[in-house]
Each structure stands twice: as C-alpha cells, then as structure tokens.
Amino acid sequence: MENEKRGALALENDRLTVTSVSKVISSGDKSIVLMQNKETLTITGEGLSVTEINLDSGRLSATGRVKEIRFSETLTKAGLIKKIFK
User: Fold this and answer.
1) Rounded to two decimals, what is the model's pTM?
2) Spatial distance between the Cα atoms of 4 and 86, rounded to a whole number of angstroms
C-alpha cells in the first residue's frame, strides 16, 4: 500500500486553503481544477483568484466566493478497464 499524505481543505469566509496539491490543471475566475493525491478537485464559484501555489509543500490558497467543491477519482487506463469488467 502506498504511503500518501492526507490532504486537507479549509474554507473560511472567502478564503480557501488546500493541502497535498500535486498539480494545478487550470484556474480562472469561475473555476479552479487541481490534483490532490489521486483525486481531481474542482472548485467553482465567482471571483476566484489563486493567491498562493507552492507545489513543493503542496499548498494552494485562493480567495473568492466558492459555490461548489467536487472531488472525483482520477482513473488510470487499467483502473477504468477494471471498473468496466467488474
């Protein structure tokens, strides 16, 4: 079993902090999409602005009005085939 750091997400008023970020896929004023461990994290809202990205420490900070936070498992090709034939 792999030893992964557990990620955290904190939302306070209009400030968002996410840890264990490995990659930022995209960011704009309406959405931020990133990788946290093996999951894709999609944050949607209004006036979103990334204020800090430090991939060495795995920390991302942003401000804005968050409307939705959605986690989805990132499937590898092998994982997808296993799910199809399960």
Assistant:
1) 0.78
2) 26
